[in-house]
Amino acid sequence: MAGGHRSCAADLAAGRIESAAETKAPGRLWLNDGSCVRLRPERANQVWSYDFVSAMTHDGRTLRLLVLIDEYTRECLAIRVARRLGSNEVIRDAG
């Protein structure tokens, strides 16, 4: 498969790739009024949340922080600070 838009259109027409409309979106817990159900944790270590925070040092360089929190206890499980945070570091800290 080449990278041009004409070859992508040909691949789509030939059925070698799917369009975004043909792929199924992930299921969510939506109610009929359009609101979303948020499941609450019932015990510690059941649901974790993570957030990325960015800060700048006095010399203009960027710091990235990955914060991992237990939703039930509201305890901070980990804070990872680095100039760059790649997917491998995020997976290692979350697992």
Distance between the termini: 36 Å
Percent in helix: 10-25%
Name the shape in a single word: extended
Structural class: alpha+beta
- Average predicted confidence as pLDDT: 77
| Contiguous uncertain segments of 5+ residues | none
Q: Which strand order does the major sheet show? A: 1-2-3
Total of helices: 2
Give the percentage of residues in beta strands.
25-35%
Major sheet details: 3 strands, antiparallel
Into how many domains do the coordinates divide? 1
Count of individual beta strands: 3
- Listing every helix as H and every strand as E from the N terminus to the C terminus, the arrangement reads HEEEH
What brief labels describe this structure?
3-stranded antiparallel beta sheet; extended; 3 strands; 19% helix; alpha+beta; 95 residues; 2 helices
Descriptive report:
The chain has helices spanning 5-14, 87-94; strands at residues 48-56, 62-70, 76-82. With 95 residues, it is of the alpha+beta class. It has one domain (5-94). A 3-stranded antiparallel β-sheet has the order 1-2-3, with helices on one face. A hairpin with a 5-residue loop joins strand 2 and strand 3 (76-82). The chain is extended.
Fold blueprint:
Blueprint: H1 5-14, E1 48-56, E2 62-70, E3 76-82, H2 87-94
Antiparallel strand pairs: 1-2, 2-3
Brief overview, please?
With 95 residues, this protein is α+β, with helices and mostly antiparallel strands. Helices cover 19% and strands 26% of the residues.
